[in-house]
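Holo prediction — 6-O-phosphono-alpha-D-fructofuranose.
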Amino acid sequence: MEQGVTNLNRFLLEQQREFPGATGGFTILIESIGFASKIISREVNKAGIVNIIGRAQSTNVHGEDQQKLDVYADKKMIQALDHLGKLCAMASEENDDLILIPSKYPKGKYLAAFDPLDGSSNIDVNISIGTIFGIYKRKDDKEGDGCCEDFYQPGRDMVAAGYILYGSSTMMVYSAGNGVHGFTLDPSVGEYILSHPNMQMPDRGKIYSMNEANYNLWDDATKKYLSYIKNDVDTKYTSRYIGSLVADFHRNLLKGGIFIYPEDKNNPDGKLRLLYECAPLAFIAEQAGGRAVNGKEDILDVVPTGLHQREPLAIGSKYEVDLYMKFKRGEL
Ligand code: P6P
């Protein structure tokens, strides 16, 4: 009998069978993130219309007041995850403090960190944006509420990470440490369909993504690296910079290349957040054969000391990232 298409649920169940001890908790978590992303995708895709015709009413059918899309996305992620009994805490770019699980719900051993809608300032100009997530497991065997310190573990210890790209199509890309897999949303049935199994980042690329407006703020090593890349006449690099991290990363994952948001004179730790932006994408990059560094060490070896810690990021094809590290170490 022909197998037919593989949707996210089927893929997760097949993956789960490869882990005999699996309880299915992780599967429910990823499924639920998938559900939240479908709701977010629907809102993102009608944002333009809302701006044109305005909302029919000031509140939606659930009585929710009109909100900024990133606040809306944050609420949908929390609502999709807080009752599952799999999490003991969440951390979100939209919430300064740790998000605890309401007392009426059971708690679990996982921790979820996410940027619910990265690049939301691009919505007004109809540029792709994304949700980024990382799933950690509490290190101790404590029960009950998690705490900030439970998140202070190297990204290498994540149990899963991924993103949803709200672009020309909506795609979920995730890894649970067993390769990187991409699913494209079929809106006609509301299912994520496996479209990119075992994604591999090209060893080297022809694309660099950097906001060169910050050039004068960068250190000499970064300036020398960019000059080297630009003068590589054999490769003939091209510049692509969308200003939306998930979109820039996703393109480089498929085509090869490097994205760099380095530290600069005004931002000694760069702009991007370690816990729910750099680390989850670094997890994906390494699983796909690429690399991610902060200019000194691999992103996945950095232990956070705060939920919203910023970190310089250079991420993409191994060749371009290794070369960047040679410049940052003064070897070139
Ligand atoms: P800049 C979007 O605001 C974001 O957080 C990332 O998605 C994006 O890569 C970066 O900031 C762009 O920052 O300073 O170049 O506009």
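READOUT: The chain has eight helices and twelve strands.
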